User: Fold this.
Amino acid sequence: MTKHVYQKETDLLMKDLNTTADGLSSEKAQQLLQENGPNQLLEAKKKSALTLFIETFKDAMVIVLLIVAIVQMVMGAHVESLVIFAVLLLNSVVSVIQTKKAEGSLDALKKLSAPDANVLRSGQAQTIPAKEIVPGDIIILEAGDYVPADGRLLEVGSLKVDEGMLTGESTPAEKKITVLSAEAPVGDRINMVFSGTIVTYGRGKFLVTATGSGTEIGQVAGLLESTTEQKTPLQRGLDLFSKKLSLAILILSLVILGVQLMRVFLDGSADVTQDIMNAFMFAVAVAVAAIPEALQSIVTIVLSLGTKKMAKHNAIIRKLPAVETLGSTSIICTDKTGTLTQNKMTVVDYYLANGQSGEFSNDPQQWQIDEQRLIDISVLANDAAISNDGTKLGDPTEIALIDFSEKQNQSYRELREKYPREAELPFDSDRKLMSTLHTIAQQKLMVTKGGPDILFERSTKVLLNGQVVELTAELKARFQKQNEHFSERALRVLAFAYKEVSTNELTLADEEELVLVGLLAMIDPPREEVFQAVADANSAGIKTVMITGDHKTTAVAIAKEIGIFQSGDQALTGAELDQLTDDELAECLEQVTVYARVSPENKIRIVRAWQEKGKISAMTGDGVNDAPALKQADIGIAMGTGTDVAKDAAAMVLTDDNFASIIKAVEVGRNVFDNIKKAVAYLFAGNLGAIIAIVFALAIGWSNPFTALQLLFINLVNDSLPAIALGMEKAEPTIMKRQPRDPNSGIFTGKTLVSVTYRGILIALAVITAQWLGNQQSPETGVAMAFTTLILSRTLQTFAARSNTQTSLQVGLFSNKMVLLAILVCSGLFSLTLLPGLREVFAIPSTFALTEIGLALSLAVSAVLLMEITKLIIVKIQEPKPEIQLTKS
Assistant:
């Protein structure tokens, strides 16, 4: 059987790769670079601008509009058809630009993560771009470096590597020089390092065995091919709505055309050809009146406004419809480390032999010898450091110890200068101890830190109130009980001890008969803002599920603390999840709020299980192992500090890696959908009013109340600005108190449908009345009155469209100044149609003057006032009645 890289001797590997301990020559490296290609992941091919442009014409309403435009072109109405073609073209261009702009935001983030590498070429160390590394190179690693490729370790010095982006592990992996005989998963390959991981401690040197797509990162990324991107609820809703509306418009237009043609033949008109042409134009006018031509552009613009709002909350949207998807999210599957927590180990408690714990005194002058000795050991038996620029280097646990010392006003630098290291026994995972030698108070002391159970067994004495006494069974039992108590809280615990020695050298034999000093307990604490964010998610009907590579105990403890894990909830490990059938998982899914030690396949399975229940699921992640689940989720949320693969698979990139920012983005998403509904409702209420007026005129034998050009002017020019202004409405106070909307529900449901119908009827009544009054003078005046009343009532309807439950005064007349501006601009646009030269184009006779305009305005204002008054009446009726208290006399 073929041996893997981690199972071979290093000499054999070097021979296979035709390299030496001095590395490759520059010439050989350049040749291999030409043969293997750059050391970077192959990027999935993006859709071209042309493909995106063509895809915008797949919408059912767009297809109907194209048919209408072609019919008009054939019938000689060239201006109207060109207007429709221009609008469709504009919609498509805007959509493509927004999509490409979102991709550009991600590319800007990618440039932040292109590390260089220290490579050995012909025996000389040099720094080169990581993309120029080839198999056979020798790479030098130091604490803080990114590992630029996969490789086999040749040298290590206390090397620890954070491999969480591949394995999900929250603690760094300790590396060794060894040969593994058996097959091992990535997390257990202790003699290997992997591309994209970070050196947290120590140093090392490794032989590059794989680059680019041949690395573990590249192989895991292949899972992306097995996942499918989901259509957003808005896309599904608009697609369904467009199909139904388009079908209804075609049927209505054909019915009207049939009725008109029947009349032509029954009346025996002298000019049959002209009457047939008029019948076709009437039917086309109905289609133009019913279709909101600017809908695509308005939805795109409102979504774009949402992306800007989200960017202020540290969320960069890659895929435009994802803005609204967040608003209907009902499940958020989130990582723990760095998203819910600070990704910073912090000392939160301690314990001394006298039972002292909690917090140190603020004044070190009041400390006993016990406290000072505990701080001294934690800093001295420690290799972590803080550079001059503030960068913290070393193992996260050791960094936590020097942070704790600084917090206690004990400068770790001053302590190390005061007690310089004279000898050391480095940390070893087998003994789980680290010891260093110092001269303290004229005594040679070996100070030791390590696992509590190990030090309990190796200690014979204990420091108690400044005195060294025997470690009795009772004292030892207290320490063990306290250690268990810390462990139950999912705290990571280290013990500290010391011993007087007489030599200048340390041996492993010295780590016996120690004096136990105390314990320090630490954890990666939750972010402060996460508590409120999880509570907000709960009140918004959003279930938060923690999915982490950490241990179950730690994950559950954090989940309980921040409110994710409640009484009756369950936690599963990846191994336990693998044992469940799909039916068993579906049965317990809603009770499981914590998944620990999970694999990439586990994450995809969890997301799919929620999707099969009809839930809109968001998934966070930063590693390559998260990418398949990010793509499968309804909305994948990648961390800004994460891998390029994760960002490419995600719909949204979180620049601050903060769960609270997700909840803020959800609020913006809900508001965006509300505003889209308001804009769409505004458009369709106006269109419904026009259709009713046209059908009424047809039924009683009046002339068509509108020309096709008048309707296009209203739909494309006049209605667009108010609809966009409605897209800027602020969120309603109760937006995060309601349950997520049903993703299968249509755009028009419940109150929205009633409101659109009611407003459409009121607009129609105003228009019909206006046409009747105008017809008293002439049919031409009747058309001008109908057009004027329709445009004014639709414009003023913007006030009523701002809310289904509140009047514009209650919402705040000046809370959205864009509404007032839109109404003023639309009024100005209408006045242009009254100018000489344009009157003829818009079929407005010269006799149409201020009296008629005033009458049309009165009808429009009356319709809008009725809309607002009706809201007040409905709210009053729906108010809960006060309970009547009956008392005995």
User: Anything to note?
Assistant: Confidence is low (pLDDT under 50) at residues 104-114.
